[in-house]
Every structure is written in C-alpha cells, then in structure tokens.
C-alpha cells in the first residue's frame, strides 16, 4: 500500500510513447500565439502583460549584458509554471517531480552563468571564492568551502523543485485516501478532512507557481554575480 503512493511519480509509457515526452511538449500547445490584428483578445493580452511584468522585474538588477537572457528566463518560467499546474489535475503526470529533468535544467544553465563569468571577468568570478579580509590561515579552508558551495548550487536548484512538488503530491494523495476510507465510517470527520484537502490543494497551486519563480529567480541571481 505504501509503495503504491509513489507510483504516480513513475514515468510510464503508452503504445511505446513515454508519457513524460507528451507532458513536456503539451504545455507549448496550450498557449495562444499572437496574431497580425491590431487588437488582440483578452487571453493574449493577459499573457503578454504577465510575461512583460515578470521579465521587467527579473531583469531589473541585471546590467545590459544580462538582458540577453530575458527570453530564456521568461520561457523557462512559463514552462515550469504550466507543467506544475497541469500536474495538479487528476490522472496527469508531473515531469518536474523527476530529479533528472530538474537537474537537466539546472546544471546547463548554472554552468552557462559560471562560464560567462570566467570569460568576461575572471578576476571577479574567482574573487567570489575568497571573501575580502580573510585571515591568512583560513584562506585554503575558505576556498575549499566556497568551491563546494559553488558546485552545490545546481543540486540545490533541482532538489528544491523536486522535493517541494513531490511532498505536495504525496500529501494530497494521502489525505484523499483518508477521505475515502473515513467516508463510510465517520462522515463528519471525512467532510472535515475533505475541507483540509481543498485548502491543501489551494496551497499546492501557490507552491507550483512559487517554486517555478524561485527556480528562475535563483538562476538570475547566479547570473547577476557573473555579468
């Protein structure tokens, strides 16, 4: 019984087609594309307003060199939010509960920020490994600690996103199972548990959006250090 709770995180296939591929491709089909008309409909207008507001806030602390990442950051943000939100629907699969997928996003983007820093300003990039005013005996230790913390960044990005979404899905399934079990025996307790489940679902909607924003925000902070 306990193992069945984790079956929802298994990447299954149907007719030889892995469902994770469908879950990754599908979000891009849902978004409307701009038309050549002078006046767009409300959905396209709201979509454009959201992307513009998010991009302007994200690029605000960055210099002009970091603005080249605006399209990539905005696309990643919209993609992660859509996948996380679709994963809350019944009988769906959430690709962002897979650590391999999240690390596939985190490692290349983090590595790109590090390479940009080493290429454009190597002295400043290496200077982050040793804080100013460090006593001479602590220099080797601090360099090792800062190097380890630098390489832990992509792991923290991927694990944070995976852990938060996995924990939320497990809580929803556990409480939903409790509601079905308690309903024939204690209807009042089952109704109260269902109310808790509804509130938890609203919380998970917020978590799905916040975690996508935090993922992209941390990437922008890493980029800010290197441009």
From TrEMBL:
Source organism, top-level taxon: Eukaryota
Catalytic activity: H(+)(in) = H(+)(out)
PROSITE patterns referenced in this protein's UniProt entry, alphabetically: ATPASE_A
GO CC annotation terms, alphabetical: mitochondrial inner membrane; proton-transporting ATP synthase complex
Mode of membrane association: Multi-pass membrane protein
SUPFAM superfamilies named among the record's database cross-references: F1F0 ATP synthase subunit A
Stretches that traverse the bilayer: 12-31, 69-89, 101-118, 138-159, 171-199, 205-223
Protein localization: Mitochondrion inner membrane
A Pfam family reported for this protein in Swiss-Prot or TrEMBL: ATP-synt_A
UniProt KW keywords: ATP synthesis, CF(0), Hydrogen ion transport, Ion transport, Membrane, Mitochondrion, Mitochondrion inner membrane, Transmembrane, Transmembrane helix, Transport
GO molecular function: proton-transporting ATP synthase activity, rotational mechanism
Subunit structure: Component of the ATP synthase complex composed at least of ATP5F1A/subunit alpha, ATP5F1B/subunit beta, ATP5MC1/subunit c (homooctomer), MT-ATP6/subunit a, MT-ATP8/subunit 8, ATP5ME/subunit e, ATP5MF/subunit f, ATP5MG/subunit g, ATP5MK/subunit k, ATP5MJ/subunit j, ATP5F1C/subunit gamma, ATP5F1D/subunit delta, ATP5F1E/subunit epsilon, ATP5PF/subunit F6, ATP5PB/subunit b, ATP5PD/subunit d, ATP5PO/subunit OSCP.
Family statement: Belongs to the ATPase A chain family.
Official protein name in the record: ATP synthase subunit a
Source organism of this protein record: Triplophysa anterodorsalis
Gene: ATP6
């Amino acid at each position: 019984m306990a193992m069945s709770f984790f079956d929802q995180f298994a990447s299954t296939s149907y007719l030889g087609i892995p469902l994770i591929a469908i879950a990754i491709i599908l979000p891009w089909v849902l978004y409307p594309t701009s038309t050549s008309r002078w006046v767009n409909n409300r959905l396209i207008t709201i979509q454009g307003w959201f992307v513009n507001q998010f991009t302007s806030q994200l690029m605000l602390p960055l210099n002009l060199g970091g603005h080249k990442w605006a399209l990539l950051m905005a696309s990643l943000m919209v993609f992660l939010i859509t996948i996380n939100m679709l994963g809350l629907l019944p009988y769906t699969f959430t690709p962002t509960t897979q650590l391999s997928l999240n690390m596939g996003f985190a490692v290349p983007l983090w590595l790109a920020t590090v390479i940009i820093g080493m290429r454009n300003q190597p002295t400043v990039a290496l200077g982050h490994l040793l804080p100013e005013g460090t006593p001479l005996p602590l220099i080797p230790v601090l360099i090792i600690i800062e190097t380890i913390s630098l390489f832990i960044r992509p792991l923290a990005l991927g694990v944070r996103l995976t852990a938060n979404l996995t924990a939320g899905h497990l809580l929803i399934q556990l409480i939903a199972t409790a509601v079905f079990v308690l309903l024939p025996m204690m209807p009042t307790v089952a109704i109260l548990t269902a109310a808790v489940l509804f509130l938890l679902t609203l919380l998970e909607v917020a978590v799905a959006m916040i975690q996508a924003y935090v993922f992209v925000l941390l990437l922008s902070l890493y980029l800010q250090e290197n441009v």
